[in-house]
Amino acid sequence: MTQGIVDFDFSAMEEHVDPYPTYVAMRNAGRVLRSPIGTLMVHRYEDVRRTHGDHDAFSLGAIDMGAAAARRDGHEGGLASGDFLLAETMLTTDPPDHERLRRVVNRAFTPRSIDAIESRVREIARQLLAPLAEGEAFDIVADFAAPLPTIVISELLGVPSEDANKFRVWSEAVTGTNVRARLNPETSRQYSAQLRLYLSEQIERRKEAPTDDLIGRMVVANSEQIMTDAEVVAACVLLLVAGNETTMRLITNMTLALGRFPGELERLVENPDLIATGVEETLRYDSPVQMLFRACKQD
Q1: Contact 209, 59 (CB under 8 A)
Q2: Local confidence pLDDT in tens for the 299 residues of the chain
Q3: pTM score of the predicted model
């Protein structure tokens, strides 16, 4: 069925900055394509939808392949790291294990739970944006887009405020969001190990003194034999990685798009009720995640 080969380098920075010319070439080349490294690619909506939803034919375990390819090319940190793949996560399991792991985490992201933390998220955002309001030099990525999700996710997990700074350093090492000073691979690995040790200690504390934060809820699930200790740690790191990178990229992509289309920015300023729609449109227009991997389970 393969209709063509497209020279698409997953690790090339120019593809990350502007993948859309390659997507045009993909659409022109055919429906099912082969990359130079041998992976097959589909890009039409119905094909992508089927690939994501047909669990009998395709497996989520393909993320291992993506992480291995990234490590082979010398990329460390974030979704390319593989450090968080020490136990099964929602990102690496098929049903029914996917539902088992997702069910526990979902309790923190119900509409009621999100409504309950909205005021706190707004407060954090105002604090981070305060220097901008005062006319000070401001980096939208380093000063806002990167720290905002890290702070919110750490509070959801239940990280004590006195540990927030070191937890943020570790998180940035794992997620690759330290945009001011890129860490060398060895330091990133050290910080990753410290983060896993810290999370393990937090789990043990909650076994003795239960809490109502996300780690506490996962520890309860652990005691009910829904999750193992290793899966709890992996779930925490996955939330940091996936939550940080996607949110940071959404904020920066939306900022860039509105800078390029000032008329749309003016519409949002004049009509704040459109902001939610603007966020959804940004997710469609320039998605933080450009591709996902699956492994074929059938010929």
Answers
A1: no
A2: 556 777 766 666 677 778 888 888 888 988 999 887 778 899 999 999 999 899 999 998 744 444 444 443 444 443 334 444 456 788 888 888 888 888 878 877 778 878 888 999 999 999 999 999 888 999 998 899 988 998 998 888 898 888 888 887 887 777 766 656 667 778 888 888 888 889 889 989 998 998 988 888 888 887 787 888 888 888 888 888 778 888 989 999 999 999 999 999 999 999 999 999 999 999 999 998 888 889 988 88
A3: 0.81
